[in-house]
Specification:
single chain; 164 residues; mainly alpha; 88% helix; flat; cell division; cell cycle; chromosome; nucleus
C-alpha cells in the first residue's frame, strides 16, 4: 500500500474511533447521570462539547485528506479542461455533451456490461454456497460417524439381551 493510502487509512481510522467514542459515551445519558452524579444540564453540555470536538476533528481530517490528495488543484485542472473542451467543441461546431452513436447500441452495451457483472456476482455467490454446502456435508458426515460410534455399543447390548 502506498504511503498516501496508509495516511488516508490512518486518518479515517482515527476519525472513526473518535466518533465511536463519542457515540458510546453519549448512548445512555440517564446511566451517565446516575453513575457520575451530574445533572442533565451538565451532561447535555458535555455531549455538545463532545459532538463539537468530533465535528472539528472530522473537519480537520477531511482537510488533511483534501490537501494530501490535492483535490482542490485537481478540480481546478478539471475545470480548465472542461473550458478548453467547450471552446474546442464550439470551434468545431460540435454539440456539447454526450454524443450517442446509436441509442440501441448504447443500450445494448449497457445491458451486456450489466449482465456480465450479474453473471460474475452469481458465480461468486454459487462458489460461496458450494463451500458452505461442503462444510455442512462434512459436518453431517462427522456427526454420522459419531452417531454410529455411539449407537454401535448400544446395538451390541440390545443383541445380547435379545439372545439371552
Amino acid at each position: 500500500m502506498s504511503e498516501r493510502k496508509k495516511k488516508l487509512v490512518e486518518i479515517l481510522k482515527s476519525s472513526l474511533s473518535n466518533f465511536q467514542e463519542v457515540i458510546i459515551n453519549n448512548s445512555d445519558a440517564s446511566k451517565l447521570a446516575r453513575h457520575s452524579g451530574l445533572e442533565k444540564r451538565q451532561i447535555d453540555e458535555f455531549n455538545e462539547k463532545a459532538m463539537e470536538k468530533t465535528v472539528t476533528l472530522a473537519q480537520q481530517k477531511i482537510s488533511e485528506m483534501m490537501s494530501e490528495n490535492q483535490l482542490v488543484e485537481r478540480f481546478e485542472e478539471l475545470e480548465k479542461l472542461i473550458e478548453e473542451s467547450d471552446k474546442l467543441n464550439r470551434q468545431l461546431d460540435r454539440p456539447i455533451g454526450y454524443q450517442s452513436i446509436k441509442p440501441k447500441n448504447d443500450l445494448r452495451l449497457h445491458l451486456v456490461a450489466t449482465s456480465q457483472q450479474s453473471i460474475i456476482d452469481s458465480e461468486n455467490e454459487i462458489k460461496e454456497l458450494e463451500s458452505e454446502l461442503n462444510a455442512i456435508q462434512n459436518d453431517v458426515s462427522r456427526q454420522k460417524e459419531v452417531y454410529n460410534e455411539l449407537v454401535a455399543p448400544i446395538e451390541k447390548q440390545q443383541q445380547k439381551l435379545w439372545c439371552s
